[in-house]
Every structure is written in structure tokens, then in C-alpha cells.
Amino acid sequence: MRQQHYLIPTLRDIPADAEVVSHQLMLRAGLIRQLASGLYTYLPLAQRVLKKIQAIIREEMDKAGAQEILMPALHPAEIWQETGRWDVYGPELMRLYDRHERQFALGPTHEEVVTALLRDEVKSYKRLPMTVYQIQTKFRDERRPRFGVLRAREFIMKDAYSFDTSPEGLDESYRKMYEAYQSIFSRCGLNFRAVEADSGAIGGTGTHEFMVLSDVGEDTIAYCDSCQYAANIEKAEVIQRDYRQIEGTGQPMEKVNTPQAKTVNELADMLDVSPRQIIKAVALDVDGQVVVALVRGDFELNEVKVKNLFGADRVELLDEERIRAELGSEPGFIGPVGLHGAVLIADHSVKGMQDAVTGANEKDKHYIHVTVGRDFAVERYEDLRQITEGDACPRCEGTIRFAKGIEVGHVFKLGTKYSEAMGATFLDENGNQQPMIMGCYGIGVTRLLAAIIEQHHDEHGIIWPRAVAPFDIHLISVNMKDDLQRELAEQLYVKLQQAGFDVLYDDREERAGVKFKDADLIGIPLRVTVGKKAGDGIVECKLRRTGETEEIKADELIQILPRLLEQA
Predict the structure, then answer these.
(1) Interhelix angle 445-455/21-28, nearest 10 degrees
(2) CATH number attached to the domain at 10-237+402-453
(3) 254-382, what's its fold?
(4) Peptide bond preceding 129 in cis form (omega within 30 of 0)
(5) How far apart (Å, rounded) are the C-alpha atoms in residues 549 and 546?
(6) In angstroms, rounded to a whole number, what is the distance separating the alpha carbons of residues 269 and 357?
(7) DSSP H/E element including 446
(8) What residue stretches are annotated with the Aminoacyl-transfer RNA synthetases class-II family profile domain (predicted)?
(9) pTM more than 0.90
(10) Which residues have C-beta within 8 Å of that of residue 57, sequence separation ≥ 6?
């Protein structure tokens, strides 16, 4: 490809609105341009990388026995209503009407569509197991699109769906996809980790996220420093333990004035107590039911754990109006003593607390010297808090550490959540109807593009792993006005293409410094420069990753290139 007429609009300055390296470099290297918030055009370089990523995905999916299909992006509301997700998915679902006032959604995911397909086309156990997949554009109305294509409103995704006749069959399908994902991310040159995760709006159990380790990741990974345990912080278990509560004085509970002290830190400072002595009460709407969850003041409530505890579709903070009307309490001063109108649950860290501080359900009032069990009763104790760095590993004697990650893949065991709701059944060996047992498996293809850049760059630009690089070789003619340089470069361009290499040929009439800066910014694995030694038939080869250079005779280049590219 000749660079003079190739659409690579490189930039010298860092765009002001680009917060993370991948977004900055994708704009500067001419990979993307923004159309609107969260909406991007992928330019030729990005498109070539995306095609290589997709080729890797297809190879591994096909190897695992999955079959590629392509489903509509526009979904009729009726199939989402069958599963109940039309009402519970939330504002991220982009909804619209056609000219006949029929309601549709732009697909953020395809569980309903694929279940409807298999429901109509597969009737017998003899046709199962079956796994289908697609690579397609998805739409989610993100509240705050950010970080370029890492959190966009339109993106490319690979989603696969398995259908089995038994839980054991699902386990096998899940294993195959899990291993395929490991191969895909390894081939893309990524440092990643598979972690236990929550299934979120998709539903199901036994889920894993594949996290690319990166400081800009929006997800926190809790991992053990001694074993292989790793989980998203939302999912990470906290083992029940002796919390060594502060020994109480036995004093009776007392109400005290605490003007404007609404937060744990404000209250701790005002009363000169440790946050460990404070019981934090969080009022929640759990599918319409009012729940108050208690957690020790030095910990944070994990709302995902509350959601899973109740098997709920939705968990939200109770608004101030309902706190006053239904709990008879004052926002910011909620406490468990004398509280009515709510299910009262607590984290294990609250059990046995003495001389504790809690809200008194009145403005600017708290109780001190509160003893759990004496002054109020908890309906049930559960693991409700967020894990913290330094906690004990739930699997071994190790210690939990934290790392940041970018989620690039997610695998779920759906079970019969969708097949039962939509009547996707098969006839078993005895002629009885059974619901298909499903799994689903997603990869953010455009997000992978950014994640690769986050892990593969330096101060000069992108450093593409060869497997996904837009071109193998960046051929540069330093001076196009020099006949010897131009002619040798033209000859090499033809020979390299004939030998099967992908070549970007910089034939622009630009200064050498501009060409070299663009080459470093674009990040193609190997640069071949035709310069002042063209008359001697010598070119310079430079590896982008290491910066190592080597002068080579032009007529030996084709034979030497495989060795150089192995090092790239």
C-alpha cells in the first residue's frame, strides 16, 4: 500500500479530550476519528488490525467447533419482553419505533435472538450440542462514554452461544470456549488474567471475565499472592472470620448530637472514634422491596452481593423521599435501632460489635454505645462487603492483592434462563421435552484493539505485536527525489509484495524526520529504510519493539526477513 494516497491522518499533538494512552495514540496515529460522543469511524490502519483480530477469533472459534452466523442488529421488542429483559435491562438499551409504531431495540447482546432461532430450528437431542457465533456491531447507550473505544456506544463484538442437553454438556462447551479465549488473547500478544465475575444483566452462573492487565482499566481485580484465585472485585468472596471487635464497656445506648456528620469520616472525627466502631446503614430498593444493609464503617457495601443474595434484577439506593416516607428515617442518619419497614441484613463484620455508633434516624443524631443483639436484631448475616487489599484469600492461606484490568472477554453459564422463558426445548431420548441448556461467550473486538495498544506502546507511539499489526513492513524511501533511492524502493516494494509480505510504502515527498516520526507512531513491526546507501544496494532494517538496526544487502532482504520478523 502506497502511503501517499493512504488515509493515515497523523497528529503531532496529544488531543485534549483523550485521557488514556490508547485513545491518544489511536487519534494521533490516524486509526480513528470521532463522529459523536462514543461513536467512531475506524480508518484503514485500524480496519486492517480489526480484520487480523477477527481472523484470529474465527480460527479459534472454528477450531472449537463453533459455527459462524450473522443475526440482525435490530430486535423486535416482543422477544425481549418474553424474557422480561425489556423492562429490566435499563437505559443502556437503545429503543426506537418503526413507521408502524412497532417498538424495537438496537441489540446490545443477542441472547433473545439466538434463543428464538434455535427454538424454531432445533427440536431433537440428536442435533445437540451446538455452538454458534457472530462478529457484529452492538449498541449500548452508555451514560458516560469515555476512554475512546474502551467505552463506546457503538462497538464490534464477537458473541457465541452454546446449546446443550445436560449440565455436563454445558461444562464441556464452557471449557472449550474458555480455552479458545486463552488462545485468542495469547495470540493477540496480551498479558491477561481470567477472573471470577458477576453475570450482571446477562444472568447465569459460573462466569469468568478475561482481564487485560492495565493501570487504566475500569475494573479492579482481586487476586491471591499465593494461589491462582482471581475475581472481579464485585464478585470476590470475603471469608467469614473473627473480626476481633473492639471490647465494649457495657454502657447503655445513648443518643448524641452530631450536626452535619453524615459520612463515616466526619462522624469518626467528631466523636473521636475509629471507623471500625461505626455501623454504616445503606437503604436499598431491591426489586421494589426495601432492604437496609449494615456494614462496618471501614468497609464498603457490595451491592452486587445484595442483588445476588435476593436473586434480584435491580438494586438501587432508596431515594430520600422513600427513606422518610417508608422508613421514617432521615437521609444520612439511618440506623438499625428501632427501624421499621425494611428487611434488615448485615455483613459478617457487624456481628458482635459493641460500643458501636449508628444513625438514630433523626437529623443530626446518632447513637453511641450500641451493642449488636442487645439494642437491635439482624435478620441474617451474609458476605455483603467489598473485599479489601490485605484480606485473606478465600481459597488458601494467601493474601489478597489488587490490580487494574480492562475487560475484553466474558463467558457465562446461562443454564435455562432464556430457554425456559422462550420455550426453547428439545425432545430427549425418551421423547420428553426438555429446555436447552445454554452458555454465552463475548469478546469486545474493538475494545481489544485499544487494550493491545495500552500494553504495547512507548513514548514514540504504538508497537504492534506482529500477529495483529496492520502491515508486516514499513518501507521508507528517505528522499523520493533521489533516483537511486526511489528506484530501489520501488523494486523492493514489488518484490516484498510478491513474496507475500504486507507492506506500507512511504512514497511521500516529506522530510526524513517526518517519515521516521510517523513510522514510530504507527508502530509497524519492521522498518526497512532506503537511504544514502541505495547506490551500494544496502538498506537499513529496524525493529520497532527493540530499536535494533541492521544494514542488509537489498538482494538478500527477502531471505533475511523471516528471521527479523520473528524477533519483531
Answers:
(1) 100
(2) 3.30.930.10
(3) YbaK protein (3.90.960)
(4) yes
(5) 9
(6) 12
(7) helix 445-455
(8) 48-465
(9) no
(10) 135, 158, 184, 443, 445
